[in-house]
Amino acid sequence: MVxxxxxxxxxxxKSTLSFLAAGRSHDEQIRCIQESGNHAPTWLLRSALLSSIxxxxxxxxxxxxxxxxxxxxxxxxxxxxxxxRLLQLAEIDYTYSPDKEVCCGAPIWEDTIELVxxxxxxxxxxxxxxxxxxxxxxxxxxxxxxxxxxxxxxxxASLARRSFAEDSxxxxxxxxxxxxxxxxRTLEIEPATYGYYKGCHRHxxxxxxxxxxxxxxxxxGIKGLTLIDLNNKQCCREDAVPILKEAVEKGVxxxxxxxxxxxxxxxxxxxxxxxxxxxxxLSSVLLDALEG
Length: 292
Hints:
Elements: H1 11-21, H2 26-36, H3 43-52, E1 64-67, H4 72-75, H5 77-89, E2 94-95, H6 106-114, H7 120-143, E3 148-151, H8 154-163, E4 171-173, H9 174-182, E5 188-196, H10 212-220, E6 223-229, H11 241-249, E7 254-256, H12 260-272, E8 278-280, H13 282-291
Helix pairs in contact: 2-7, 5-13, 6-7
């Protein structure tokens, strides 16, 4: 049973939130992060997965410390593999922790923003716990003498940038780092046309502090790539059907949604509403451009 919220989420998105909570109270979810480092999967499973997809052992120190997150490795394995390959191709110096990284607490933090009746002191208590989790990752980065914290999850990146505002330039979504490193390269793919859904970003975590315009501009400079913009005022969490219908009307057969939430919600809605559509990640486009 999902608690009443301040926003008009679709039943499909509410069921996603309920699935992530898995019947656990906020305290139980906090305890999972404290005891296993993740909101759901354990350190052992996460470490085993990262090893199984060919991730090289971590360096003792590096310029960039990568936080892989607790859901990206399990829900977006092709994208994770693309990220790892892109770090290599872009010659980015990085390290990570296979067994000490912890969840940022985003699934719990969201409830402090959008649940109707949560008391202010409880909100602060939960948010302080989440900030403590993120500070644990910062500590790992400092131990590795890293200049930057790099996050594969946009929710992690946005919350870290908000929580450590005085140091936000050193907390980056991985696409920020990749775009900056590849900006001066001439990139080209086989001619292809995609719909492009930037997202509205008006719901948690209010990720307006990420460079959404920059990603669109960067993709627009890739030779052979044609983008058909879709209405980003329509929220995928409230009702993604109009976004998909617009794409169909414009002859789009595959959509790029740089926001992981958008990509996932559009996929679920496509399946539930029986609107056939394919989806491509920003990272896979970059990989196409670099590997041909």
